[in-house]
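Researcher: I've been going back and forth with a colleague about how BioF2-like acetyltransferase domain-containing protein might be arranged in three dimensions. Neither of us has a model we trust, so I'd like an independent prediction. The organism is Cystobacter ferrugineus, in case that matters for your notes. Sequence below.
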Amino acid sequence: MLTSNQQVRDASAATLAVLTERELAGIRRDEGARVIHHGGHYWEQTGAPGFFQPVHLLARLRPEEATRPTPWSWGYRATLTPNDASAANGTVPILRLPDLANYELNSLSANRRNKLRKCQRLVRIVQLTGPALLEKQGHALVIDSLSRTRHKNPPSRERYLEQVKKYFRGHHWCVLAGIIDGKLGGYLDGYVVDGVAYGSNAYYATWALPTNISTGLVFEFAQLCRRIQCVHTFTGGLHSRENPQLSQFKDDMGFVVDSIPIKWEMSPLVRTFIRRHRPHAYYRLTGTE
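Model: Here is an independent structure prediction for BioF2-like acetyltransferase domain-containing protein. You can compare it with whatever you and your colleague have in mind.
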């Protein structure tokens, strides 16, 4: 059973701060990211050193703003306003809920509705208001989850605990967790900037998967976003076309692939390397083959 020192509140009472692009840029800089100001927007280095994109990826820039943010970058990308789509040379394949304002149980497939009901019987979904539960149980859960999914390298305990500290330095991160018989079964995190909610990371213990905890956590995060009136978009990451199981899950949850026009550049050598050796990453970066 959870105790008060484990710092939780029920998901129905969860809260989430709404940031401006400037506020997010300051937070990312404080978290150690390289952030620069260019063309009226804030850009951060992401992935391999030398590649930049706006800290708020869906900020929707004009073509004259979407230019190389520093002479030393080997590549960049930025989404364009709808009126400037003709200037695009690629897309970013965003997963988003097409009608967040009306997203509810009937937005899910019939099979997924049954899984949500099962989760609601077995899992208590809460917002974490402090680091206690993650410090105690989170690292082992993340190692288990990443050993199964292999989508990135597992962190050391020290590096993981540093990330946990970032969650609770301010109020911009929301961490929803699923508790099963008093034990942490999984969690996801996200934040909101200028009306767009970004689902960032999600980790689920292998033993917790039969409870359909992933369905419950994603659904509850969407409900939280619905309650914040200024939030108009909820994105669940980028399309992972090489992962049919994940793609099916997102489809069942009601997400669609929205190919948003972008302007991008990449040095020819790096472009050739990524396109040849990491074609799925190249697709997510540029929307092209």
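Researcher: What would you highlight for our discussion?
Model: I'd start with this: The helical segments are 21-30, 110-122, 132-149, 157-167, 213-227, 244-252, 268-277, 279-286. After that, consider the following. The chain has a mean pLDDT of 94.
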